[in-house]
Every structure is written in structure tokens, then in C-alpha cells.
Design a protein that fits this description.
Elements (H helix, E strand, L loop, with lengths): L1 E9 L3 H13 L5 E5 L15 H4 L15 E4 L3 E5 L4 E4 L4 E9 L3 E3 L10 E2 L3 H10 L5 E5 L3 H12 L3 E6 L11 H13 L3 E4 L3 E4 L3 E4 L4 E3 L2 E4 L3 E3 L2 H5 L8 E2 L11 E3 L4 E5 L4 E3 L4 H15 L11 E6 L2 E7 L6 E8 L3 E8 L2 E8 L5 H9 L18
Parallel strand pairs: 1-2, 1-6, 2-3, 6-18, 8-15, 9-10, 9-15, 10-11, 17-19
Antiparallel strand pairs: 4-5, 5-6, 7-16, 12-13, 13-14, 19-20, 21-22, 22-25, 23-24, 24-25
Helix pairs in contact: 1-7
Length: about 400
């Protein structure tokens, strides 16, 4: 079957949905089509490891895609882009002709070489449903990974009266992002909440009932959840000859190396002039804002993506928002109202602020962005107090 549309979006996630809405707002009479790999229509992803474990209201996560009046085809994967012909072929053999194309294919979870599909690689609403159904009080889960997703899932399961053992190779929870003292404090806090945190420990084999650990011991569990990050889905773009470098390379207007093809969301590597580098960010704010800007740009508007995305997390009764680069290898300056409970952490590199962690400190994202944009110079003394440590 052949289809023809003014705009085609590959990917039915947050970025794709935001782009469809923006396209409809900018081009009222245009034809818009969307191909989605999942069985479910677009939804908000953050609640999968946050709000849904508190209120269970799955009805609140769905995006209002009907307002975009797009033709949506689910459980369909694009397999080939013919740039000269302006066509996309999908995995059932249909051909989709486009005027402008958006690639918003997201990423696939990193997987372990053992365990197969018995492990839950936490990414989709389907993964949430599967884990939620299994998460009965008293059930014992191994959470592999101590980063962003692993820490949230461990907290969610423990809050729902499950036994949790965390396994990761670093010295503390989120140790790659937090300064050492904060990582140590968060790790101790998790242990106080009843989570068995095993730092410096990895799984080397086993199944969803019994893992073999790097110290040679065996951990018996009722299920395994892995949060190991994602690999951006760039193969479609690479096969089409688009420039790829840790993501699909785009300019400020989210155009790829082909001016009629755009990219947004987890898969896009975009310029961040205030940081002097290109970024690829796997968070909701980036997906929403980038998708909306891509839609406007595809419709001919001048709507560059020119801001730093922020992200946030909930960890038991701790929470934070963050902007820029959170890398524990940078110089970190800590400004606490209450140590490890409320404060601000600044990340410095080359006399510039490159990132800000707002720990239980709210409504300061805009101020953090402004601070990162300032040329400085800053050092450990002059940066203190630039942002209020409570908000």
C-alpha cells in the first residue's frame, strides 16, 4: 500500500507527538502521518518510574494526539528511507511518501548477554504493566543499575513493599553524576529505607530467579529489572546516509544533513552553544520541547532549539531538578541548607558553570540556565550563593 502526506513522523513517543501538535498548529490543513513501533499510542514516559507507583492512574499518562488530527499507524517500524524519492518503507512493505520527515525513533535499552526476555528492561508502558503486576508485597527484585532509572525503580518497588537488591559497579548510587559525598549519602539513605544496595557488584550470569554475582555468590530473586541506559536508534538514519555521531546530528533548527529530514528527542545530537559542545539528552523536557520546535521548523517557522533541557527525579522523599552537564569528574561546589537534603551543587569546568543540580530546591531552572550561559569566570568561591539553596 502507498501513502502520501505532507509530513511524516517516524516514532510515536513524546517527541513525535509534540511535533505533530506543533505541525497542526502551524499548518492547519496539512496531512500528517505517524508510525509507532509500540502497540500503545503516545504517552508521558516519566510517570512510568514515578507517579504511577504512587497513584496507579494510568489514564493520566496518555497524550492528546487526537488534537493533531494525524494518521497514526502503530506496531509499525520504518526500515528504509529513500531520500531522493522522499519515501519511507515500513516492515509490512507499505510505502510512505513525505514532503518533510521527522525521525523521532528514541532508543533501545542496553541489554545483558544473559537472562533473555525474562529480565525487564524498563522503558515502555508495557514494561510498567508487567512489573506492576509482578510487584506484590514481599516479592524480591534485583535492580541492575544504579543510575537514573535504576535508582527510581528501586525506590518505586521499595515504596510498594517489595524487597529490593540493587547491583551496580560504581561506589554509590548515581556516582557518575553526584559528587562523592552526595552519592555516599544517597546510598546510605536507600539502605535506611530497606534497600540492599551492593556497590561494586555486578551480575555475571543467571536467570530471573537466580543471578550469579561478580563475587561468585548467587542471589535468589523473584524478578530482575535492568536500567542500563539506552542505545539511540540511529540505524535507519545511518543507512540513509545521514550524519550520525552519538545520535543523529542536527543543526539548531533540528535539520539533519538532509534539509527535508529532521530529528528530535533521545535520538538527536543537537548543538548546545552555551556548553561549547553537542548534546544528546534522554529526558522528557528535551523530547517535548525539541519535538515542538522540530514541528514548527518543518512547517517553515523560525523556531530554533536554543535552550538547555532540564530533568528531574523522585527518590523516596528526595527530589531534584538539574540542568546542563552533571559529571562527577568535573569540579563540584556544594551549597547546602541541610547537608544532602536541601541545596545546590554547581559543576565547574574551565572557569564556567557547566551544570547545576537543584537538590530539593525548586523553581530555579530558569536561573540555572541563565547562570550556565554566563561567561564567568567562576571558581569555587565566586559561584557560591549565585542561586538560592531553597525555593
Amino acid at each position: 500500500m502507498q501513502h502520501s502526506h505532507d509530513y511524516l513522523i517516524i516514532g510515536a513517543g513524546m517527541a513525535g507527538e509534540a511535533a505533530a501538535q506543533a505541525l497542526r498548529g502551524a499548518a492547519a490543513n496539512a496531512t500528517i502521518a505517524m508510525l509507532g513501533a509500540e502497540a500503545d499510542p503516545p504517552y508521558d514516559r516519566p510517570p512510568l518510574s514515578k507517579a504511577l507507583w504512587k497513584d496507579g492512574r494510568e489514564d493520566a499518562i496518555w497524550r492528546a494526539l487526537d488534537k493533531a488530527r494525524a494518521e497514526v499507524t502503530l506496531q509499525r517500524n520504518a526500515v528504509k528511507i529513500e531520500r531522493a524519492a522522499h519515501t519511507v518503507t515500513d516492515d509490512v512493505g507499505d510505502t510512505w511518501r513525505y514532503g518533510k520527515l521527522l525521525i523521532a525513533t528514541g532508543g533501545a535499552p542496553r541489554r545483558l548477554p544473559f537472562g533473555g526476555d525474562d529480565f525487564i528492561y524498563y522503558r515502555t508502558v508495557g514494561d510498567y504493566r508487567r512489573l506492576r503486576a509482578a510487584a506484590k508485597p514481599g516479592q524480591h527484585f534485583a535492580v541492575i543499575g544504579g543510575g537514573f532509572i535504576g535508582s527510581e525503580i528501586a525506590a518505586a518497588l521499595a515504596t510498594n513493599d517489595c524487597r529490593v537488591t540493587m547491583l551496580f559497579p560504581e561506589d554509590g548510587i548515581c556516582a557518575r553524576a553526584y559528587p562523592r559525598a552526595l552519592a555516599d549519602a544517597v546510598t546510605a539513605y536507600y539502605r535506611a529505607q530497606g534497600v540492599d544496595v551492593r556497590t561494586g557488584m555486578t551480575a555475571t550470569g543467571g536467570s530471573a530467579q537466580a543471578l550469579t554475582l561478580s563475587d561468585g555468590s548467587t542471589l535468589k530473586v523473584d524478578g530482575v529489572v535492568a536500567g542500563l541506559g539506552i542505545i539511540p536508534n540511529v540505524q535507519l538514519a545511518r543507512d540513509a546516509g545521514l550524519e550520525v555521531d552519538n545520535g543523529i546530528v542536527v543543526n539548531a533548527h533540528l535539520q539533519t544533513s538532509d534539509p527535508d529530514i529532521y530529528a528530535a528527542g533521545d535520538v538527536a545530537a543537537f548543538p548546545a552553544p552555551v556548553l561549547g559542545r553537542r548534546l544528546r539528552v534522554e529526558h522528557a523536557d528535551a523530547a517535548n520541547t525539541m519535538g515542538a520546535r522540530a514541528g514548527k521548523c518543518m512547517a517553515g517557522e523560525d523556531a530554533p532549539y536554543n535552550e538547555l533541557p532540564f530533568f528531574y527525579s523522585d527518590l523516596f522523599d528526595l527530589g531534584y531538578e538539574a540542568v546542563g552537564i552533571l559529571d562527577a569528574r568535573l569540579e563540584t561546589v556544594e551549597q547546602w541548607v541541610t547537608p544532602f537534603r536541601e541545596g545546590v551543587v554547581y559543576y565547574l569546568d574551565g572557569s564556567r558553570v557547566r551544570g547545576v543540580l537543584l537538590w530539593n530546591t525548586w523553581d530555579q531552572v530558569a536561573a540555572a540556565r541563565k547562570l550556565i550561559a554566563e561567561p564567568g569566570p567562576f571558581d569555587a568561591t565566586s559561584v557560591l550563593g549565585r542561586l538560592p539553596a531553597a525555593g
